[in-house]
Write a structure and sequence with these properties.
The protein is α/β, with parallel strands linked by helices and about 675 residues long. The protein is about 30% helix and about 15% strand. It has 21 helices and 21 strands. The strands form 4 sheets. An 8-stranded parallel barrel has the order 1-4-5-6-7-11-12-13, surrounded by 8 helices. The chain has an 8-stranded parallel beta barrel with strand order 14-15-16-17-18-19-20-21. Strand 8 and strand 9 form a beta hairpin. The longest helix has 17 residues. It is elongated, with a radius of gyration of 27 Å. The two termini are about 30 Å apart.
């Protein structure tokens, strides 16, 4: 696939050469409206919420809402509780214009001018802060709180909006010069998007200074380690390194949604805890969508968050951008403690969902699952030592190189390994010594590798706490007694997480979803569904991205191979290394001859996770299981570049049934040598 981001930039440069930076639209000579603080209430208190986006189309989805009226949509967003409104003004791929931006601003001004709470008196008298009561957001906000308004500024019925909560307007585009920021200001935008990836550090500095000069705000989008170096350079300049201080979370004493309280965070130290101008401010965002190929990785913003804090300030506000289309995913992101969520397609296409999308983010709370994935993200970003997982969730151009490639840290490039189907402590210890990140134990008696057979669990419990690798309990039926045992062990912290193996999402209770977990699935359809619902990682059967060339011996039929990702039943008794008779779903001829088999990698899926004829997935595929051996792992890793591989029978001698579940030390050593 071509680099879409580069294509967008080149067309934009052409349009600017032909039409100028106003793209043919008439822009006022001077700004016509007051500036509104971005992601803050008018009294200056930081605000956590959702940025809803006026968006007609995108390169990845095509038309989303082609007949959208930008002004009417902005009003709908305001009455849905949007903390800010983003308006796309790129015309070639997103079908937006500067006229859309001006219409959005006029719609917000109309809400503010007319007032939406008739019972709040608006006189010409001056308050303590020198503002009229119509302007005095603090007085208005106090009245709103007395009347039981939610943190989103809406009444419980959703029919009224507190004037103190009128949303700011963000111009979202691929801006390339300070002059475009000036145009945005005159057109009415309160904030602009600055994409670090498409700007040199010198140009980013120049544009940031223009934002500060105009007292606007900016959302600075960060994607790679190279971007981190850019913001570290820019926002540690003395004229931009302005301490924010105050409450780190910004929600002390406020309601997050009617009747629910958010605890107050720690007081800020006042040392580079955010970057603020006199009126405006700089906040930072991480796009879960890679703009070079438009693939989504929901965990990427979590991975980058600690890097941003390290570069700019621990209490800087960080926004999760894109990739959320439903309330389950919105809640999942909200539980991660981001300052805000920028949401486009889901809001533009689904007017009836807008309010619930906002509420699900704002009311979300951290859970044990949240902490598990934050810790994992810190580990793969190489910053595990900097994360305090016990803290409550809350607030906290030109490309110099190929725009299509993220600059990943060594930790992010390192392949993680899970050894699954463990039945003996000595095998677990050996796997850990060799560098296993996850150790998988099956809790399902119908499979020979089950830990709940032959007193295996009792034999390892005494020493399992000494294992520092993450211990995963694999279950196949949430109602089974073995699953009950596994869940209890995870709740007690003896095991670290649950693998829901081929279990439908709908069968998992809300309580279980709050425990550390991930799903393992066989199909891309199920994979895409689970990621779309906010699951940070899903283990995928590798056959979905590899053609079935059953040439090398590896998998035993009838087994939960690699933690259960590949289940094959044998057509005859005692074939395939001890499998049992049953219906074979593929490879029947080979299996009938007593062979074991695996799927060898072929050219059906590119290493950069781009689209193949078979695979038109929206999400990056990170975790692979099934058919992985010490012999083929090196080629597989080079070709598919997974973040994690899951291996079970591939490090066993399964020619004899009695060896199933017993890891071969030589094969383990060879696997780790070849993978790293």
């Amino acid at each position: 696939m071509s680099d879409i981001l580069t294509e967008i930039i080149e067309k934009r440069k052409r349009d600017i050469r032909e039409q100028g930076i106003t793209f043919g639209f008439e822009i006022p000579e001077v700004r016509q409206r007051p500036l509104h603080p971005f992601l803050e209430n008018l009294d200056g208190q930081k605000r956590r919420g959702v940025i809803l986006e006026v968006k007609r189309a995108s390169p990845s989805k095509g038309d989303i809402a082609p007949d959208l009226d930008s002004g009417a949509t902005a009003k709908s967003y305001a009455y849905s509780g949007a903390a800010a409104i983003s308006c796309l003004t790129e015309k070639n791929y997103f079908k937006g214009t500067l006229e859309d931006l001006m219409k959005v601003c006029r719609a917000i001004d109309e809400i503010e001018k007319n007032g939406v709470i008739s019972k709040i008196e608006k006189s010409g008298k001056r308050g303590k802060n020198g503002m009229t009561s119509a302007e005095n957001s603090f007085e208005q906000k106090g009245e709103c709180e007395k009347k039981g308004f939610c943190e989103t500024g809406l009444s419980k019925e959703g029919s009224e909006l507190c004037p103190a909560f009128v949303p700011a307007v963000l111009r979202k585009d691929f801006l390339l010069s300070p002059e475009e920021i000036e145009i945005s200001y005159r057109a009415g935008a309160d904030a602009v998007l600055l994409i670090a990836r498409i700007l040199s550090k010198e140009l980013l500095l120049e544009m940031a200074r223009k934002v500060k000069e105009l007292k606007m705000s900016a959302l600075v989008e960060v994607r790679s380690d190279e971007d981190i170096e850019k913001i570290k350079y820019v926002f540690n300049m003395e004229d931009l390194k302005v301490a924010c201080g105050g409450n780190a979370s910004g929600y002390c004493g406020q309601n997050t949604s009617c009747g629910q309280n958010r605890s107050c965070g720690q007081e800020g130290t006042g040392q580079n805890e955010g970057v603020c101008g006199q009126k405006g401010s700089f906040v930072f965002g991480v796009n879960s969508r890679d703009l070079s190929n438009f693939k989504i990785d929901l965990l990427h913003p979590v991975i980058m968050r600690e890097k941003i804090r390290s570069a700019v300030g621990k209490n800087v506000r960080i926004i999760f951008e894109s990739g959320v289309t439903n309330t389950a995913c919105s809640a999942s992101v909200g539980a991660m403690g981001f300052s805000a969520l920028l949401l486009g397609e889901g809001a533009a296409k689904n007017p009836d969902l807008r309010k619930s999308l906002v509420e699900s983010f704002v009311s979300a709370r951290e859970s044990k699952n949240t902490l598990f994935w934050e810790e994992y993200a810190a580990k793969i970003s190489g910053r595990a030592e900097s994360v305090e997982f016990s803290q409550p969730a809350g607030e906290g151009g030109e490309c110099r190189e190929d725009c299509s490639k993220d600059n990943l840290s060594l930790a992010e490039k390192s392949v993680k390994v899970k050894i699954c189907g463990l039945t003996r402590m000595e095998d677990a210890i050996k796997a850990q010594e060799l560098g296993a990140d996850f150790l998988g134990f099956v809790f399902a008696d119908k499979f020979p590798r089950s830990l709940t057979r032959e007193n295996r669990l009792e034999k390892i419990l005494g020493g399992i706490k000494s294992l520092t690798a993450k211990k995963i309990a694999v279950i196949v039926d949430v109602t089974s007694k073995e699953a009950e045992t596994a869940i209890a062990l995870v709740k007690k912290g003896i095991f670290d997480a649950i693998q829901f193996h081929n279990i439908p999402y709908e069968e998992i209770s809300a309580e279980l979803l709050e425990l550390p977990h991930y799903f393992a699935v066989k199909s891309l359809e199920d994979y895409e569904k689970l990621i779309s619902l906010g699951e940070m990682r899903v283990l995928l059967d590798s056959r979905e991205i590899m053609a079935g060339d059953f040439a090398s011996a590896e998998l035993a039929c009838g087994e939960l191979a690699t933690g259960g990702s590949l289940e094959l039943a044998c057509p005859v008794d005692n074939c395939c290394s001890g499998g049992t008779k049953g219906e074979s779903n593929q490879g029947e001829e080979l299996c009938s001859k007593g062979a074991v088999f695996t799927a060898n990698p072929v050219n059906s899926y590119a290493a950069d996770n781009t689209v193949s004829p078979k695979n038109k997935n929206l999400y990056n595929i990170k975790w692979l299981a099934g058919g992985i051996t010490a012999e083929n792992v090196k080629a597989l890793v080079e070709k598919y570049q997974p973040e994690l591989i899951d291996v079970s029978s591939g490090v066993e001698n399964t020619e004899k049934a009695e060896n199933i579940g017993i890891k071969d030390e030589r094969k383990l050593e060879e696997l780790f040598k070849n993978v790293r």
